[in-house]
Give the backbone structure.
Amino acid sequence: MPNASRSNEPAFNQPIAGLLRGVGPRMAEKLAARGLLTLQDLWLHLPLRYEDRTQLTAIRDLQPGVPAQVEGRVEAVERGFRFRPLLRVAIDDQSNATLVLRFFHFRAAQVAQLAVGVRVRCYGTPKPAQNGLEMVHPSYRVLGEEDGDALGDALDPVYPTVEGIGPASLRKLIAQALDRLPQDAALELLPPAMLDGLNLPSLRQAVISMHRPARDADLAALAAGTHPAQRRLALEELLAHNLSLRRQRISLQQHGAPRLDGKGALVAALVAALPFKLTSAQQRVFKQIRADVRQPLPMLRLVQGDVGSGKTVVAAMAAMLAVESGKQAALAAPTELLAEQHLANLRQWLEPLGIRVAWLAGKVTGKARAQVMAEVASGAAQVVVGTHALMQEAVVFHDLALAIVDEQHRFGVHQRLALRDKGASGDSVPHQLIMTATPIPRTLAMAAYADLDVSAIDELPPGRTPVQTIALGAERRPELVERIRAACTEGRQAYWVCTLIDESDEVVAQAAQGTYEALSAQLPEVRVGLVHGRMKPAEKQATMRAFKSGAIDLLVATTVIEVGVDVPNASLMIVENAERLGLAQLHQLRGRVGRGAAASNCVLLYQPPLSQMAKQRLATMRETNDGFLIAEKDLELRGPGELLGTRQTGLAAFRIADLARDADLLPRVRELADALLADSPEIADRIIARWVGGAARYASA
Ligand code: ADP
Ligand code: MG
């Protein structure tokens, strides 16, 4: 029964334990492990798909591969053992056709129950077998002679599994929870006026249609996620995420930040000494940063820029704003190799200006470490470059005014916050600059980065020769070996990337090892190296360094090389099984070449036959080098859950919304969020709690 009397919000948040029949402490624990704590959590635990038991299909009309419900009498039972126990039950119906039900796991009671002459109703997917069709492990029910033919009038939901709870129990629990679904007025958080004109059902109606779609529901729309019930839920979920991000931004803005408003003499000196002219995109983004840090409010800005777009120099210029004001800047990178590259660049640019650049990484130990820590604490170190080591508790800054984090998705959000907190004093926090080479499309950025300001360096420095990309069937591998031989004997360097998606690290490592051995044997005149994820970090870095210094010609690698390494002399890349990688990842990999003056090539090796999707991906890679275009295409082809850039934001964790599919809702979501934050912040909080709940802790203030 709908529980209309409990009209206040806590009804949503009543704990499942003690409220629903059959939920004792152990069951409650299992539900909690899946994040299911309250009634509301169960209402929003939505079906993955549906089974149609509202009708019966004649056995004669069954189609292989099409799930159906049939009813018949047991005509023969065969119990056997062929490699493993086996139970085969043949049933007949009025259509005079036979269907075999096949079980590999069964109990004695089942065998006893399925006697000849008994009436059964079963649901499953028929497939062709020796004599006609069979269903393997169908769900079934034995009907008594007096049982009528009543069929359900709603489709049966199939829920995402909860470990330790069987599907039938879970269904019953959710049904109990739905019986307590309040009436519209008590459930709806959005003011009705906000829903006007959207032509979407009420929340109550949407939840009911999702769990118990009528027999004539639009199954195609449900499967595609475009049913009005799904749109209604997606709208509210997107709104909740948007509100939660903006809430964090608002709370960040409660802090002050140091005003970095010097004249810019250091920046001018740095720019004057650069061996190149800044691109207009770099200049534009730097201006945005400068305008931010002049304010007494903390900057939180993301700079997106394709690989090679020149983010580092912009970071260095930003650091100069802090140094000129007598304060410190820190730059953190996710790997030692990347951090070392930054260090080399910054030292080269900044030391001639008399600026002290310190280095702090895990391998700086003992006395050297103590000395660096002392310089950081005294302020003698004006710019500090490092890895995770920078974020450790023991590191104390004198006066950190700007925290720069490169490729932050490789760090946890906590780590970025840890770095920020190092500069906190009184009510002031440092400015934060985040850099990423993983561009995400504008629509996504609007949702993913609602709490950040976003800049794009959308232009590459002049003079780069675009990488030429081709796709080749794996049978042409021998030609490639010759190509590598030619390139390496001319003094160029090459990458061979081994990928096996869905395989464990270990299997990929083995494959890379195998390729390494084969190529070493085929190319005796080439110095071949190997890196993979199962190697010790020190070993990995030694090999990377050898490649960088030119002591290795050909580097066989797994995707561990994806982020980082700048080896301008490497001008050939081969990616194996390219059909199995997503566009974002292919683009990141390819970014390792094309960094020097020599024309570079990228060969995407694939295993035919190619799926339609894989064909389009490879075509996109051949046609463009533009990371933003590739990101748009990726979104279009795959949806955002798989986009590299969304993992870092936690957007992949939506329950129902899909940013690609629901992108048209985003402008409306923004408007709704604006209105709620301005007029009804308490409603905003309740919406956040409903959808985001505890997860908000991890978001990115
Ligand atoms: P990313 O954005 O991938 O971090 P980097 O900052 O490493 O790119 O820059 C790539 C290379 O381009 C570096 O060698 C850098 O010195 C150089 N570079 C940066 N800006 C320019 C520019 N405006 N003109 C020419 N070269 C540039
Ligand atoms: Mg970089």
Observations:
- The longest helix spans residues 228-252.
- The radius of gyration is 30 Å.
- Residues 311-312, 406 surround magnesium ion (ligand 2) (CB under 6 Å).
